[in-house]
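Weekly structure sync, notes
Attendees: PL (lead), two postdocs, one rotation student
Agenda item 3: pending single-chain targets
PL asked that the sequence for the first pending target be pasted directly into the notes so everyone works from the same version. It is reproduced below exactly as submitted, 79 residues in total.
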Amino acid sequence: MAYDSSLDQQSFSKSWQGVTSKITVGVYSYNNGPKKVQISRELLDQEPGRPSFAKLGRLTKDELDGILPLLQEALTQLG
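Predicted structure, written out during the meeting:
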């Protein structure tokens, strides 16, 4: 079965923005399945006004400090 975006339900999404990137923590459920956490990174210093997505990879201490409260809040959404 191919991915169908209409079956993807977002129940939580918050972002932390640093100098060169924005990290978003979200909670999603696909086709009424179990809720799962998604963490994504957008690079902000690419073409002006056009952020690009990148692998999350490693986090700096500042990034981790920034998203830790978001992860804790997402955890409460998992039930």
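Discussion points:
- The mean pLDDT is 92.
- The beta strands are 8-17, 21-30, 36-43, 52-54.
Action: rotation student to compare against the earlier draft before next sync.
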